[in-house]
């Protein structure tokens, strides 16, 4: 009897231990839909948000965004700014480490930022760091990288000197281009430093595997300085650009987050999933770019006419179910201290716009009664973008008797084509603010911006006003210069703003810690999942 009792108690105890252990042993995994395959995991060559979502889980910049979209300390625990606003001194965290256990040093940041500006790297987004002293001259090959305003004062102290006071500099440092790389790893592995099993990162997670067009897996980085606060063991990114498939996987509970779903599904999804459907206003502009290098898009009258003929109210209401707003300026409304330079035709009725558009097209010798107008619209694969392109094609056919065709590529290929200077007629693009300043949207059209000035627009007056804005220290005067520059941009219409965007997310009620924000910043380190 005693032996049986002892055995029974032992079995109970073992069962209790197993029951108590099972929740702790269960992995906390976030399944994250990411709307497309990244072009790269190299900070120096990144440009789109689906890359940023991954990179910011793997690496941590000097500053980061919290769940509310506000700048907070990241790899730097603190900083000071000189009285004239041109020298930033960052104190790195004593316990900041790379995933291989080596310390994150000021020299790593000097190396990383210099690597972006080195013309040999050919970083497409090098201009975002031009506020750093001599960065533009270095990037253009006029000075060596040793002339950059970067200094490792000691292992944990970094000094950055700027060309001029830049109020949004801390936001620039949270951009994926400013994420650090391990100097030792890059020097040892070269371009292979981005590969699973080789990558050394300093963020909350480390890269485990990457199967292109299938999934990318990151696991909690035990060397991360705040690892104890990271609640997820693993994040699996799914690069699915098929929005219907993403929604089906969400509904089947196979994915916890879905970025970008078809807007015509908003009402249906809200009825079924309520607050799990997130429509978050964003500092973002949906626009079409015209290739100004070729006829007829080199003619401002043609660009103006095509832009005028687009019924933005229809796009906003019928295609996006009211989740986006008609846009008549490149800079979205709502930036403090800045009044956008709206296109003057925005005050006209759609019928009046179409009448004016016909006059302009006739003056240019195209359209009905003139030379035939043949237009190809390029867009990245996405049902919303396809519906927009189809609607605009119909508008141009009906207004100008144009012959309009559509061509689409996956998101990475689409933007790679535009950034590499491929010829086109009209191309869809979108821009979400890297920092809350009008300059971020207007700089896209400066003639020297070889990466993001997709239509190769050149206008000396526009460039001149933008140049003056960089040297102007008075905020009101600076805003006026940029406003005047945008007025020129909206008159010339090398870009036709169509919609002020909102970000569309599906967020499972299993996901905790989520907060909508205008910067669309959602680090996995702040999230958790519950069964």
What are the SSEs and their pairings?
Layout: H1 2-25, E1 29-33, H2 49-58, E2 63-65, E3 71-73, E4 76-81, E5 87-92, H3 106-117, H4 135-139, E6 150-154, E7 157-161, H5 169-172, H6 183-189, E8 205-211, E9 215-220, E10 234-238, H7 243-251, E11 257-259, H8 266-273, E12 277-290, H9 300-308, H10 312-319, E13 325-326, H11 350-363, E14 374-380, H12 383-400, E15 403-409, H13 411-419, E16 426-432, H14 439-442, H15 460-471, H16 475-492, E17 495-507, E18 511-512, E19 528-529
Parallel strand pairs: 1-10, 14-15, 14-16
Antiparallel strand pairs: 2-3, 4-5, 5-7, 6-7, 8-9, 9-10, 11-17, 12-16, 12-17, 13-17, 18-19
Helix pairs in contact: 9-11, 15-16
Question: Would you kindly provide a written description of the structure presented here, covering whatever features stand out?
Answer:
Strands 11, 12, 13, 14, 15, 16 and 17 form a seven-stranded mixed sheet that branches. This protein is of the alpha+beta class and 531 residues long. Mean pLDDT is 93; it is low at 1-24. The protein is globular and about 70 Å long. 32% of the residues lie in helices and 20% in strands. It starts with a helix and ends with a strand.
Keywords:
disordered N terminus, four-stranded mixed sheet, alpha+beta, 531 residues, globular, single chain
